[in-house]
Design a protein that fits this description.
2 copies of one chain form a homodimer.
Chain A: E1 4-7, H1 12-20, E2 25-32, H2 38-52, E3 55-60, H3 63-67, H4 97-111, E4 116-118, H5 134-147, E5 153-155, H6 163-173, H7 195-206
Parallel strand pairs in A: 1-2, 1-4, 2-3, 4-5
Binding site for Zn(2+) (chains A, B): 183, 191, 194, 197
Enzyme class (chains A, B): ligase
Family (chains A, B): Belongs to the QueC family.
Chain lengths: 217, 217
């Protein structure tokens, strides 16, 4: 039964969720908030939706690039190198980004008579991203229920999985991860050095997948 | 101390809140989601911010006019006449509109080191608008706290007041309500017949204010 809308970035996690729950997904939405890597990941989001015959929409949120404070919105030079979970990655947080994307998705769900919003946040996000943590997910779920006539709910099936476990699920599903984008710098190839590239490499290795990514280094 | 951001439509309630809490408000934001009445109310929002020396920004959310289901986004002919609290006004609900505006305001608050988001929802909204009710306000407050580093909070000082009580507060503050907009139809003058016009007339009468509004009828 098609009862859900998914927030789909075109990265590894949400692409895996798309394939994993394809039977329930009526609509996928990507957000363009003006980062360098949006332009690289959204075409992959579109590609996978076409493969699965799922309707895909891109929602422009360009004002975030203009008014929000984040190194992710300040060009590739501003993206720190290092490990995803380290303190210096905090600068890449876009304030309340998931709250904004979930709120739009909730209104879209109600507008389309859909009951669930799906998001692919995971355990590895919790350290630095407050709007990926279980407390946030639970609170937003209650907010969506209270704020809609049909009581929209938030589903976050990967919330307590690692990115490596998600990649292992993608391996079972036969997903081609060369057709996903992670790098926050959003250059021609993945840089291989920023936090999201380091995390991507680790997850693929953990899942025993030969890394199909072309890196700059 | 300037610690707050306000969601300011340019209607009676949020304009009153702006004057009432002007000492604490560092930034006011209005949202243009593509309704007829946005174009009428936003210039009033801007006017009052100029009067008070408060910074004002307009955030475009035009995709809501394109993808969301609501008579408010379908032109003036679609707006029903009658009482604000009646069942047929349900068609004017924009799904999860307050959730979306609050989420953007929360990210803006964190980006600007502000601790509070203010919204002027009131008791008369509760009947038909789920995203104006106390349960929604409480749940969003927890969501904003959980989803931000600085624990942004939601303030909703008029949540249990009637619109008439808000107008009475505005009378004390000396607010000129001729410089506010209510009518959902967004024509040259207030139509005087839609739910928001009926509610406006009642509130001004309840507060003992000579109605300064020019109506079509």
């Amino acid at each position: 039964m098609k009862d859900s809308i998914i927030i789909l970035s075109g990265g590894m996690d949400s692409t895996t969720l798309l394939y994993d729950y394809q039977e329930r997904i009526a609509l996928a939405i990507s957000f363009d908030y003006g980062s360098n890597h949006n332009a690289k990941e959204i075409p992959f989001a579109k590609y996978h939706c076409e493969q699965l015959g799922i309707k895909h929409l891109v929602i422009p949120l360009k004002f975030m690039g203009e008014y929000f404070r984040s190194s992710l919105l300040s060009g590739d030079e501003a993206i720190p190198e290092g490990h995803y979970a380290s303190e210096n990655m905090k600068s890449t947080v876009v304030p309340f980004r998931n709250g904004i994307m979930l709120a739009v998705a909730t209104g879209m769900a109600e507008s389309n008579d859909l009951q669930y919003v799906m998001m692919a946040n995971h355990g590895g996000d919790h350290t630095i991203y407050p709007d990926c943590r279980p407390e946030f997910v639970d609170a937003f779920d209650k907010t969506a229920q209270a704020g809609t006539f049909n009581g929209v709910r938030l589903l976050s099936p990967y919330c307590n999985m690692t990115k490596g476990q998600i990649a292992a699920r993608g391996k079972e599903l036969g997903i081609d991860y060369s057709k996903t984008w992670s790098c926050y710098r959003g250059g021609d190839k993945h840089c291989g050095k920023c936090g999201t590239c380091v995390e991507r490499k680790e997850a693929l290795a953990d899942a025993g997948i030969d890394d199909p990514t072309e890196y700059e280094d």
